[in-house]
Amino acid sequence: MIYETYNENDTKKIGFELGRKAKAGDIYCLKGELGTGKTVFTKGFAQGLGIDEHITSPTFTIVNEYRQGRIPLYHFDVYRIGDSDEMYDIGYEEYTDGEGVCLIEWAELIEDIIPSDAVWITIEKDFAKDNECYRKIEVK
Questions:
Q1: What are phi and psi for residue 7, nearest 5 degrees?
Q2: Is 80 in contact with 109 (CB distance < 8 Å)?
Q3: Which residues contact 79 (CB under 8 A, 6 or more apart)?
Q4: Which of 138, 137, 140, 122 is nearest to 6 (CA)?
Q5: Which of 25, 41, 36 is nearest to 118 (CA)?
Q6: Residue 31 contacts residue 123 (beta carbons within 8 Å)
Q7: pLDDT score of 126
Q8: Any idea where the domains of the chain sit in the sequence?
Q9: pLDDT for residue 7
């Protein structure tokens, strides 16, 4: 499915709808360059889970846990991970086999350990569009 958004609120709405449908054990993988809106999308996703906490990118902590919603959200940012083995060192399997949903930014860096049934979401800017907030969001 391909969506087009023209502002941050539209990007959040797509995240919100996916979050509303998410269930324990789901893994969502986010791909996109810096500044494409992965964290904006994640904020909407968290709202769809009923999470009202302030959502930030876990760039330096690798994973942020949010337990306030209907199911926990484990929000990963693996940009700084050197290889997939590091993910096991931080307890990756406990999160993916746990009671919540995982949302992984930069998941392509650890693609070798991502389950085949994971949902992949690619967010891209298109500079040819006449709107700097335009995003193409592809959900597979």
A1: -160, 170
A2: no
A3: 59, 105, 106, 109
A4: 137
A5: 25
A6: yes
A7: 84
A8: 24-115
A9: 94
Would the pLDDT of 98 be above 90?
no
Residue whose token pair is 């906490």: 53
Q: For 72-94, write each residue's pLDDT tens digit.
A: 999 999 999 988 999 999 999 99
Q: Extract the tokens encoding 50.
A: 């009923």
Among all chains, which residue has been given the structure tokens 């959900």?
A: 139
Task: Round to whole Å and give the CA distance between 55 and 75.
Answer: 9
One-letter amino acid for residue 31 of the chain: K
Q: Distance between CA 93 and CA 8 in Å, rounded?
A: 32
Q: What amino acid is encoded at 6 in this protein? A: Y
Which overall architecture, per CATH, does domain 24-115 show? Answer: 3-Layer(aba) Sandwich (3.40)
For 36, residues 6+ apart whose C-beta sits below 8 A from its C-beta are 123, 124, 125, 135
